[in-house]
Amino acid sequence: MNHIAVIGSGTMGRGIAYTAALAGFSVTLQDIRQEAIEQARSYIDRQLDKSVEKGHIRAEQRDIARNHLSYTTQMQEAVAKTDLVIEAVLEMMELKINIFQQLDEWAPSHAILATNTSTMSPTEIAASTKRPSQCVAMHFFNPAHRMKLIEIIRGLNTSDETVEIVKQVAEKMGKETVEVNELPGFVTSRMNCLIGNEAMNMLMEGVASAEDIDKALKLGLNHPMGPLELADLVGLDSRLRNMEYLYHHLGEKYRPSPLLVKYVKAGRLGKKSGQGFYSYTI
């Protein structure tokens, strides 16, 4: 594994690209919009500079990581000589399948195709390719450069070799892994979505304020972030898509909170829009 292509330069994609470059991989970050690519480049440059200023990395490491990164709007160019593709686009099955079909056509025959999905079936995604044994889910967490865990989820036909290779990649990135049997939501998303959804229902019912709900979970249950803070960070539109997927596949207990639906309809998408359960400066 020398080269990694990351498809999608949003919050997760740019975080994964940053992490991979710091770990010594050559990385190409791709997005269909030039504006998104420039925003990702600026973000990664700032993060590298901040890491040097805070003493987390040396200036030489920053410069090497920067040299390991390239950016493009052309997917075919991004994956032409890659060893591993990590797709990090919106949680929409039709979109992921479309991308994997293109990746299967353009990536080298030896390349592993991974999806960063937090809820969806790697088996279904892999079935759209001619290399299902080389398809897998690698679920990173936000922010990707800080969070230590990667969930690795096998599809029905994912080979042992593929799982072992992505575990080695994760280890080189400084991550711990857990191997999860495929069911919608895996481990963390099922738990997070349930907790977050209940917090939203409690807020809607007037049980407590957003601040006090989050404070109770942080101080009473030792959660590093409150569930409403976390939903704002993830993006309420992304959380709603996850909830709808889980509700469709796992039933009533995952029905999205009416408050979540209302906020998304109002454009209150969390930190990225400046307003969610809390207000932010953007």
From TrEMBL:
Keyword Protein transport applies: no
3-hydroxyacyl-CoA dehydrogenase NAD binding domain residues are 3-182
For this protein, the record's PANTHER family field holds:
3-HYDROXYACYL-COA DEHYDROGENASE FAMILY PROTEIN, 3-HYDROXYBUTYRYL-COA DEHYDROGENASE
Does Cell membrane show up as a keyword for this record? no
Q: Where is the 3-hydroxyacyl-CoA dehydrogenase C-terminal domain?
A: 185-280
A Pfam match is 3HCDH
The metabolic or biological pathway listed in the UniProt record of this protein is: Lipid metabolism; butanoate metabolism
Q: Which InterPro entries match?
A: 3-OHacyl-CoA_DH (IPR022694), 3-OHacyl-CoA_DH_NAD-bd (IPR006176), 3HC_DH_C (IPR006108), 6-PGluconate_DH-like_C_sf (IPR008927), 6PGD_dom2 (IPR013328), NAD(P)-bd_dom_sf (IPR036291)
Its family?
Belongs to the 3-hydroxyacyl-CoA dehydrogenase family.
SUPFAM superfamilies in UniProt: 6-phosphogluconate dehydrogenase C-terminal domain-like, NAD(P)-binding Rossmann-fold domains
Protein keywords: Oxidoreductase
- The entry's protein name is 3-hydroxyacyl-CoA dehydrogenase
